[in-house]
From TrEMBL:
<keyword id="KW-0813">Transport</keyword>
<feature type="transmembrane region" description="Helical">
    <location>
        <begin position="304"/>
        <end position="329"/>
    </location>
</feature>
<feature type="domain" description="Protein export membrane protein SecD/SecF C-terminal">
    <location>
        <begin position="141"/>
        <end position="331"/>
    </location>
</feature>
<dbReference type="InterPro" id="IPR022813">
    <property type="entry name" value="SecD/SecF_arch_bac"/>
</dbReference>
<feature type="transmembrane region" description="Helical">
    <location>
        <begin position="278"/>
        <end position="298"/>
    </location>
</feature>
<dbReference type="GO" id="GO:0065002">
    <property type="term" value="P:intracellular protein transmembrane transport"/>
</dbReference>
<keyword id="KW-1133">Transmembrane helix</keyword>
<dbReference type="GO" id="GO:0005886">
    <property type="term" value="C:plasma membrane"/>
</dbReference>
<keyword id="KW-1003">Cell membrane</keyword>
<comment type="function">
    <text>Part of the Sec protein translocase complex. Interacts with the SecYEG preprotein conducting channel. SecDF uses the proton motive force (PMF) to complete protein translocation after the ATP-dependent function of SecA.</text>
</comment>
<feature type="transmembrane region" description="Helical">
    <location>
        <begin position="219"/>
        <end position="240"/>
    </location>
</feature>
<dbReference type="InterPro" id="IPR022646">
    <property type="entry name" value="SecD/SecF_CS"/>
</dbReference>
<dbReference type="InterPro" id="IPR005665">
    <property type="entry name" value="SecF_bac"/>
</dbReference>
<dbReference type="GO" id="GO:0015450">
    <property type="term" value="F:protein-transporting ATPase activity"/>
</dbReference>
<dbReference type="InterPro" id="IPR022645">
    <property type="entry name" value="SecD/SecF_bac"/>
</dbReference>
<dbReference type="Pfam" id="PF07549">
    <property type="entry name" value="Sec_GG"/>
</dbReference>
<protein>
    <recommendedName>
        <fullName>Protein-export membrane protein SecF</fullName>
    </recommendedName>
</protein>
Length: 352
C-alpha cells in the first residue's frame, strides 16, 4: 500500500475534535455520503430515544398480535377454495352474491387472480361437504350460464397448515441459534446478543405489521420471513464488521471512546445500508407492480409484501437497534468504563 493510500485511510478511524466540528457544519447529504461521524446514533440521548421508539413499535405489534391476531390463509386454516373464470359478468361481487344465494351464508373471502383470459375469481370458505360443494357448483354454473366443469373446487386440510407452522417454528429457532453461534465466533458475545435481539425485533415487527393491516398469512409469507431475516443478518454483520475495525485498537488511544468509534462506524456504513436497501426494495416493488398489479399472481403478492416490510424493518434494526444495544452492553464492561473515564479525563485536562 502506498503512503498516499495510508494517509487517505487514516481519518476513517481517528478524528480530532476539530474534524467533528467541521463535519457537523457541512450539509446533511455531505455528512451522509462522507460518513464523517457527524450523526449521533449511539450517544446516550440518541440511544434512549431509539430504545423508546423500538419499544413502542414492539408494544404496538405485540398488542395487535394478541388482540387482533392474524388472517391465516386457507393453507393454514383449512377449508374449500372454489375457482371460476372471470368475465364482465363474473366479478367478485356477483360471485359473492351467487355463493350466498346457493348456500345461505357469506364466503370468507372472494378475490380476483390473474389478468385477461387467465383471470379467475377465487372463493375461500370453510370446508364444504360433498353435497354443499355440488350445490355451489351447480348454483354458480346456473347463475353465470357456464358449464359446471368450468367451476373447480379443492379442499385443504388444516392438518397440513399445522405441519407447516411447526416446521416454520423449527426453522426459525435453528436459524436464530446458527446466527448467534456464527456471530459469537466471528465477533464477540455482546455483538452476538445485540444481533439476536435485532433479529427478534425483525420477527415481531414484521409479524405485527401483518397483524395490523390484516394481510393474509400464507406459506409464501413464511418463506419471505425467513428470507428477510437473512438480509437483516447481512446488514448487521456489515455494520458490526466496521465497528470491529474501528474499535480494534480503541484501548491503545485516549482520543475516542468506544461509543464514539462505534458511532463513526455506523456513520461510515450509512450509505452502504441505504444503497443495499434501495437496491433490494426496487425489484420487490417491480414484483408487486408487474406480478401482482398487472398479472394478478396472488402467491407473489404474499412473497413481495413480506419482503418489502422485512427489508425496511431489517435496515432499521441493524443500524438503530443493534448498534446502540451493542454500545450499551459494551459499556457494562469494566475495561470499557476505565477507558471512557481516561478519555474524559484527558479532555478535561486539555480544556483546563
Amino acid at each position: 500500500m502506498s503512503s498516499n493510500e495510508t494517509t487517505a485511510e487514516k481519518p476513517t478511524t481517528e478524528w480530532s475534535d476539530d474534524d467533528y466540528v467541521a463535519a457537523k457544519n457541512t450539509s446533511f447529504f455531505s455528512r451522509l455520503y462522507s460518513g464523517t461521524g457527524a450523526f449521533d446514533v449511539v450517544g446516550p440521548r440518541s440511544r434512549r430515544r431509539l430504545y423508546v421508539i423500538s419499544a413502542v413499535i414492539m408494544v404496538i405489534c405485540v398488542l395487535s398480535m394478541i388482540f387482533r391476531g392474524f388472517t391465516p390463509g386457507i393453507d393454514f386454516e383449512g377449508g374449500t377454495q372454489v375457482s371460476i373464470p372471470a368475465s364482465d359478468t363474473v366479478t367478485t361481487s356477483s360471485v359473492s352474491e351467487a355463493f350466498t344465494a346457493a348456500l345461505g351464508h357469506d364466503p370468507e373471502s372472494v378475490q380476483k387472480a390473474g389478468t385477461g383470459e387467465a383471470a379467475t375469481i377465487q372463493v375461500r370458505t370453510e370446508t364444504l361437504s360433498h353435497e354443499d360443494a355440488a350445490k355451489l357448483t351447480e348454483g354458480l354454473a346456473s347463475t353465470f350460464k357456464i358449464n359446471q366443469s368450468d367451476v373447480s373446487s379443492s379442499d385443504v386440510s388444516s392438518t397440513w397448515g399445522a405441519e407447516i407452522t411447526r416446521k416454520m417454528v423449527i426453522a426459525l429457532i435453528v436459524f436464530l441459534v446458527a446466527v448467534f453461534i456464527y456471530i459469537a465466533i466471528r465477533f464477540d458475545r455482546e455483538m452476538s446478543a445485540a444481533a439476536l435481539v435485532s433479529l427478534l425485533f425483525d420477527v415481531v415487527a414484521t409479524a405485527g405489521v401483518y397483524s395490523i393491516v390484516g394481510w393474509e398469512v400464507t406459506p409464501a409469507t413464511v418463506i419471505g420471513l425467513l428470507t428477510i431475516l437473512g438480509f437483516s443478518v447481512y446488514d448487521t454483520v456489515v455494520v458490526f464488521d466496521k465497528v470491529e475495525e474501528n474499535t480494534r485498537s480503541v484501548f491503545a488511544s485516549s482520543r475516542r471512546t468506544y461509543s464514539e468509534q462505534t458511532n463513526l462506524a455506523v456513520n461510515q456504513t450509512f450509505m452502504r445500508s441505504i444503497n443495499t436497501t434501495v437496491i433490494s426494495v426496487l425489484p420487490i416493488i417491480a414484483l408487486i407492480v408487474i406480478a401482482v398489479w398487472m398479472l394478478g399472481v396472488g402467491t407473489l403478492k404474499d412473497l413481495a409484501l413480506i419482503q418489502l416490510v422485512g427489508v425496511v424493518v431489517g435496515t432499521y434494526s441493524s443500524i438503530f437497534l443493534a448498534s446502540p444495544l451493542l454500545v450499551t452492553l459494551k459499556e457494562m464492561r469494566e475495561d470499557v468504563k476505565r477507558h471512557t473515564a481516561k478519555v474524559i479525563a484527558r479532555r478535561e485536562r486539555a480544556a483546563a
